[in-house]
Amino acid sequence: MANTDDRNRVRIVIEADGPYHVHADIPLVRKMQVVSEYGEPLTWKPEGAIKTSGAYKLCRCGQSSDKPFCDDTHWGAGFDGTETTDTGPTAARQITYEGSTGIVIKRDHSLCTEAGFCGTRLASIEQLAAKTSDTDVRSQVIAMIERCPSGSLVYAMAEGEPEIEPDLPAQIAVTTEITSDGPIAGPLWVTGNIPIERADGQPFETRNRVTLCNCGRSESKPLCDGTHRTAGL
């Protein structure tokens, strides 16, 4: 049995084929995507806090009747929550965009949720990278990277310098995304360097931005891979 100090340690522990166990009463909030008149994701809008008291469990199978909380539906639903995400450091998987000036742009495609902050109707971030000698473009690219919920995109100001991360609170956000068909439930957005442990006790790399699957269909569990969007969930 875990001792009191262990239960009170801030972290998220994944249950095998079950929910996310959130320890130390990490704040739980709602956030909604803000999009342009053309449907381009622009930023995130706070939608208020969700009341919790002490440790709590968040649904991972996508079938709870008490979302975002787990109601143990996974027990009878045959949920396969096998975790397949690489637990190694993201730096080992990053690629660097060529052609940027005044900024180093890196991407770990395995973390991407296809949230859409990395492009506009006119240009992708790859295309904008070649134009970052322009301060306005460089500023736009930084804003796009910092709003990427998964941390798939990161940046540094020069090669060899530390990556710069947005200053985000230690919390979990239940997200809503805006699509051409209307609002849909997005992933759980974990921010503020909260440790996450696999069901087998193996830790994931602690990162400032993590998007966790809560529809039960990701092919990269426990991370979101955008399946909720293509499946129309």
Describe the protein in words:
The mean pLDDT is 93. The chain is globular and about 55 Å long. It has a domain at 90-156. It has 233 residues and is of the alpha+beta class. The chain has helices at residues 4-7, 74-77, 125-129, 135-147, 227-230; strands at 11-14, 20-23, 28-35, 41-50, 56-58, 95-96, 104-107, 153-156, 171-179, 182-191, 196-197, 209-212. The strands form three sheets. A five-stranded mixed β-sheet has the order 4-3-9-10-12, with no helix packed on it. Strands 5-2-1-11 form a four-stranded mixed β-sheet, with no helix packed on it.
Overall 3D shape: globular
Radius of gyration: 18 Å
Instruction: Let me know the largest β-sheet.
Output: 5 strands, mixed
Element-by-element helix/strand order: HEEEEEHEEHHEEEEEH
Straight-line distance between termini: 37 Å
Q: Helix content range of the residues, please?
A: 10-25%
User: Residue ranges: pLDDT <50 for 5 or more in a row?
Assistant: none
Which percent range describes the beta-strand content? 25-35%
Spatial strand order of the main sheet: 4-3-9-10-12
Q: In total, how many beta strands?
A: 12
By secondary-structure content and strand pairing, the structural class works out as: alpha+beta
Provide mean pLDDT, rounded.
93
Number of helices: 5
